[in-house]
Design brief:
The chain is 75% helix and 0% strand. It is mainly α. It has a domain of 163 residues: MetI-like fold, CATH 1.10.3720.10.
Length: 323
């Protein structure tokens, strides 16, 4: 009696195929787990950095603003909870309204003038000419210098008695101006210094944006008879819109928290005429023998909220433009 072995082959081969398929799935799952672990290994340092240097300080700042912290509170570790009373005290302070106004003027004028001059210089250097690279590099010097050096230089230049600015004004018959000691001119003085420092940043960003615009568009516009002004408004400016938006946002956030330039040049004076929210926060926390850490943290939180609101507005506008 013979046995039909052909009928046994499929059943014998099926387990080997299933084993191979199961082994392949296992290898794929192992590869996926390994890829996930590798991704988490790369993300862990960034996450740790954000928690230690952003999330934790932010939480402590919020905690400071909700309690009444003094020097004794830091020593004892106990600070009474006062809720929103610190915010009420800050908003009702006689310094709040002038600080908000000075901050608004300082930020808006700075970023608008910096952007306008930076864009103009970027367009100018985009038309390549001899020594354009060298001149463009020289324009980066204010951005590369430490802020301490830049602010100290402008403070010396605008000195009422020995400054080079007043020396020039007297030579042309205008007369002396107390740039740093007059309430009428102190905010203007720190504005000029901050604009000078911020122009190179706008120049670099806008110049890189111009590099991404195809030259064929300008050639076609020239053939159609468009002049330089028309090419700028119909080609350059519209195509620079994404770069413009991020430049203005970064400029706003950076200028909102400017402290060192104002502090070195005027210390927020005279008579609070150049006191911004950043300067006021420092004065409350470290500018007196009896510091008010809670109020200083409250003013800092106001700055954070302003920056957050502007960031959300930017994200919403960008989402609408992309749709």
């Amino acid at each position: 009696m013979t046995t039909d072995t052909t009928s046994l082959r499929p059943s014998a081969a099926r387990p080997r195929a299933e084993d191979t398929s199961s082994s392949a799935r296992s290898r794929r799952a192992h590869a996926q787990r390994r890829a996930q672990l590798t991704a988490w290994a790369f993300l862990a340092p960034v996450a740790l950095y954000l928690v230690l240097f952003y999330a934790y300080p932010l939480w402590k700042n919020i905690e400071l603003s909700l309690k009444h912290y003094t020097v004794a509170s830091f020593v004892s570790g106990n600070a009474p909870f006062v809720g929103l009373q610190n915010f009420v005290d800050v908003f009702s302070s006689s310094t709040f309204a002038p600080a908000i106004w000075h901050t608004a003027v300082f930020v808006l004028v700075s970023i608008l003038v910096q952007f306008a001059l930076g864009l103009a210089l970027a367009v100018f250097f985009h038309n390549h000419f001899p020594l354009s690279g060298l001149l463009r590099a020289l324009f980066l010097v204010p951005w590369l210098l430490p802020l301490l050096v830049s602010a100290s230089t402008w403070s010396w230049m605008m000195n009422s008695d020995s400054g080079i600015v007043n020396a020039f004004l007297e030579s042309v018959g205008i007369g002396q101006i107390n740039w740093l000691t007059s309430p009428d001119w102190s905010l203007f003085a720190v504005l000029v210094a901050n604009i000078w420092i911020g122009i190179p940043f706008n120049l670099v960003i806008m110049y890189s944006g111009l590099q991404g615009i195809p030259g064929e568009l300008y050639e076609a516009a020239s053939l159609d008879g468009a002049n330089g002004w028309q090419r700028f408004w119909r080609i350059t400016f519209p195509l620079l819109r994404p770069v413009t938006a991020i430049t203005l946002l970064l400029g706003f956030v950076y200028t909102l928290k400017v402290f060192d330039i104002i502090w070195i040049m005027t210390k927020g004076g005279p008579s609070g005429s150049s006191t911004t929210l950043a300067i006021w926060s420092y004065q409350l926390g470290f500018g007196s023998l009896l510091p008010d850490f809670s109020s200083a943290a409250t003013v800092g939180n106001v700055l954070i909220v302003i920056a957050l609101v502007v960031g959300l507005i930017y994200a919403r506008v960008q989402r609408r433009l992309e749709v």
